[in-house]
Amino acid sequence: MKVSVYDTHVVKKNGLTMHFDIIVPDDQTHEKVLQFGLEYLKRVGQEGQPLTTKECRFCHMEEASEDIEKAIKESGYYIYEMEGCH
């Protein structure tokens, strides 16, 4: 499965920055990617933090691993957490 990767940096409620990728099928719109990002922020207790095209930018396309493809088939997207997400 070909996927699009969106590099995302969000300032948390405590002022620190979260860095994560939102990975979606390559046919998703940027608006849908932002909706997925807002879902994720709500799930991790960061609801209400700004998430716009400024914080979430298209990075590249790649072939998804089996694990990522499975997650996308279940929920429509995959979050790859990198820094400050916990």
Keywords:
86 residues, alpha+beta, NE1680-like fold, 38% strand, DUF2024, DUF2024 domain-containing protein, NE1680-like_sf
Description:
This protein has 86 residues and is of the alpha+beta class. It has a single domain (2-83), classed as NE1680-like (NE1680-like fold), CATH 3.10.510.10. Helices cover 28% and strands 38% of the residues. It has two helices and four strands, in the order E-E-H-E-H-E. The protein has a four-stranded antiparallel sheet. A hairpin with a 5-residue loop joins strand 1 (2-11) and strand 2. The N and C termini lie far apart (29 Å). 24% of the residues are buried. The model has no long low-confidence stretch (mean pLDDT 97).
Strand order of the largest sheet: 3-1-2-4
Order of helices and strands: EEHEHE
Amino-to-carboxy terminus distance: 29 Å
CATH class, anyone?
Answer: Alpha Beta
Q: Helix count? A: 2
Q: What is the count of distinct domains?
A: 1
Q: CATH superfamily membership, which one?
A: NE1680-like
Helix content: 25-40%
Any low-confidence stretches, pLDDT <50, length ≥5? none
Mean pLDDT: 97
Protein name: DUF2024 domain-containing protein
Organism: Kuenenia stuttgartiensis
